[in-house]
Write a structure and sequence with these properties.
The complex is a heterodimer.
Chain A (H helix, E strand, L loop, with lengths): L3 E3 L4 E4 L4 E7 L6 E7 L6 E7 L4 E4 L2 E6 L4 E6 L8 E8 L6 E3 L3 E6 L1
Parallel strand pairs in A: 2-11
Antiparallel strand pairs in A: 1-3, 3-8, 4-5, 4-9, 6-7, 7-8, 9-10, 9-11
Chain B lengths: L4 E3 L2 E4 L5 E6 L6 E7 L5 E8 L2 E4 L8 E5 L5 E5 L8 E8 L7 H4 L2 E2 L3 E5 L1
Chain lengths: 112, 119
Amino acid sequence: SQKIEQNSEALNIQEGKTATLTCNYTNYSPAYLQWYRQDPGRGPVFLLLIRENEKEKRKERLKVTFDTTLKQSLFHITASQPADSATYLCAFHSGGYQKVTFGTGTKLQVIP
Amino acid sequence: GAGVSQSPSNKVTEKGKDVELRCDPISGHTALYWYRQSLGQGLEFLIYFQGNSAPDKSGLPSDRFSAERTGGSVSTLTIQRTQQEDSAVYLCASSLGWGGTSDLTDTQYFGPGTRLTVL
């Protein structure tokens, strides 16, 4: 069965640096991947979507890349701020009438 | 309302009792999803609806779990004979649909969740 793997260990980085989070998947490539942010006690909030025919997508300080050869998506936050501290989830969608599969998330802590 | 709402926000029940969790999706959203999230864990997919039908029920943990959606809007997740391992936050999300060319079509908007505690 399809598996989505995110680094379960927390990522601590200094304010101003670029944070890079990894999402790996097994088996077949998704039609698209989504990245969500989740704060404690709240539901996830959508950030970015990247399709299988796209290499990179940007939104303000956020950048997502998608490498179907490596079966990996990278999520970057440039000029990170303490307010970026949260858990970031990737979600795999195979397209059509298929469910979305979420990774377990990576907790990011930006240190002032 | 502007977003997805869920009720109750908190539910404490005794083992063996039945509970009903409610989700009101964003108006016009045809797709609705239920997830479960245990403390410190990722989202566990339970079921999704396209309109009133559920093409995929594979995520329901056991036959004690059931869900329905009426009028293409409100959905109810029912857990019968609750067990302590059912304790978790139950999240609902809705989207315009899926498989569209716009990123927004498949974007899931989540509710605040219902925290279920089974004693």
